[in-house]
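Hi L.,

As promised, ABC transporter substrate-binding protein:
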Amino acid sequence: MTDSNDGFKSRPLSRRSLIKAGGLAASAVALPMYLRPASAQTKKLVVVNVGGAGGEAKRRAFYEPFTKATGIEIVSVAGPDLAKIRAQVERKDVEWDVVDLLDAWVPVCTRLGLLEPIDEKIVNREGCIPQARHEFAVGGSVYAGGIAFPTDRFGGKVPKTWPEFWDVKNFPGRRGLRTRINDTLEIALMADGVPPDQVYPCDIERAFRALNRIKPNVSHWIAQTQQTVALIQANETDFTFTYTTRVKDLQAARVPIDYSFRQNILGLGWSGVLRGTKNREAAMRFLSFVMNRECQVEHANLSGDAPTYTDALAKVDPAVRKWLPNVGSKDNMFVNAQWWDGRLDELNIRFKEWLLA
């Protein structure tokens, strides 16, 4: 689970990766057979994404191949917003056909009846990881968060697991953690010895006791994702929770920083169709592209996020693939948005008060 800024990450794309992926997109994407030839009556779909580099990656990986195959134009709008989704559906005045969704929004939208059920006759998800399947949404990518550390300090002795992150005696250094309770709660439990695959249901009191122990050693409580790695780069902190893509981009810029792939927190990039859209069938066809292996490979090459098919990993550019998490490893854990549903606001308030105490 992530907040709106983190879940919808916007990252720069290198010119090289764009050119390379663009070439692949034009030549290698195998399209679902039922989409040929283009014959849909729908002329356009409105698709909402994060915009910026993330939106550009989706345009090249999903939107352009979809339009080429169906003749349906994709009108992309930046800025998914849960309140706007709810308002459109409840007013029965749906302007957005497909919307990118945060992990936390999927159970909320389901509970409120804001999404169309996925049409399994159109959207083929056979072989995808089980975490990417939902009755009302499709998971088209996987992002990963874990420990970042400098490579020019400490002689290589740095924490690579959350118990090591909490072990300030054997791994001295300044710590950075986030100002939000989601992710931080799971991190604290892993630090206290809970195996990643047993974090849920979360023992909240145990997590806060673990946070009490690390609190004196946290130099920065960080609100914005970009600050996680920027503080390491500026030598203002040493070890922080951040995302693979943040470290990947800095390494490409020759910043001495690295990332641990152990005990990663994994989240999904979801998409759903708003209930009441006039373009339901075309929107479901679009979701079939989001769940198309070749399109996901192109998206991985452009975005640095993993496909939701494990057998697609081998097709990702090796330079990108080394940055993708092992989604099948029990050493990593997927966010359980269902567990957070109904708890997030209350725990965030408690966490903010704890930070001020």
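The longest strand covers residues 137-150.

Thanks again for sending the construct details.

K.
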